[in-house]
Design goal:
Length: 403
Amino acid sequence: MEIRKKKLYLIGLILPVFAIACSLAVPLSGTELNMPAEINTPTDLPIPTSVQPTPELISLPAVTAPAGELSLTDLYALANPAVINIITYANQSERIVPRGQGSGFVYDYDGNIITNAHVVHGADELEAIFSDGTIKTAEIVGEDLHSDLAVIKVDSLPEGVAPLPLGNVGDTVVGQTVIAIGNPFGLGGTLTSGIVSAKGRTIPALTPFSIPESIQTDAAINPGNSGGPLLNLRGEVIGVNAQIETDGFSRSNSGVGFAIPVSIVKRVVPELIQDGAFEWAWLGVVGGDVTPTLARAMKLPVLAGAYISDIAEAGPAEDAGLHGSDDNTVFEGRQLNIGGDVITAINGQTVRSFGELLVYIAMQVEPGDEVTLTLFSDGVYEDVQVTLDERPESLEAPEIPLP
């Protein structure tokens, strides 16, 4: 029986005639979403055998939008002028030809526009098309492949176009209504709506590293939506639409999309504008969560933490003496790598999962910072000081995301 694999795809749109030649806006090759081996599904929930009629109609109070929230009509009128259709061009045989298409949105009155790095990376020329039809030449200001963010700039904004305000991921809750505006399949100014399906997702970057705290949404996003805003009903940007999950056969929306969180936008974009690049801190470990099975197999005194399965050669963790797995075994019918260190805290903050370690390294520290890791190693607890480095430009792609 054939097993269908779900995949994460970047959602920049390649113009059909150049779909084969242009590799940057094609899917993340070989990148698949890891699915749990076991899913505990309740099987004893009561199933109603009939629906009882309502004795009488009950008058319910009118439901009104929370203060400051807009109707979709008003929100579109407010936000759409700031959403840009980005056309990229390549120089082929001394001719400039269309290469791809994506979305972006205005960040400030200086003409800086936020988009995805995978939309513009490698382009020889850029055009920014505004909702009123104005076409302006744009230039790349800076890009960061680790976060899949980029900033391009036009010399001036059309009259009446204002930047979109940035929201706060901390105010975002699962179930709230969100909208996406962009240019799916080249259809400019398209609005779709949905909800925040989940928060705190980790998605692949354009490097062996990962993008933490990403937002999952069922708002329809498709090729060409890349770089466009995911907005709350107050008109604030809470994410930059970047990827979709598919069944492996189609590159269109199947109800699961991902947006780079505005917390990373706020961290990266000012540096891209100022310096053209952003420097991420690097610990240099590969790992996963401590599971009950692993805890029993290694006789760990903890049931949660970040388990280190491998150490990057010549990285900060190796320099500090951390250890990865040194043995493998079959325990309770499962193949396990054992013997690695378990990180339970960083700078005094409890670490309950590998994802929490990733988020802390990505969001709380800088290259050159010294951090204190609390480890359970070789049967004892110890505190180890590690001086973080800058992420290397390239690494062999690991099986598990590197923080």
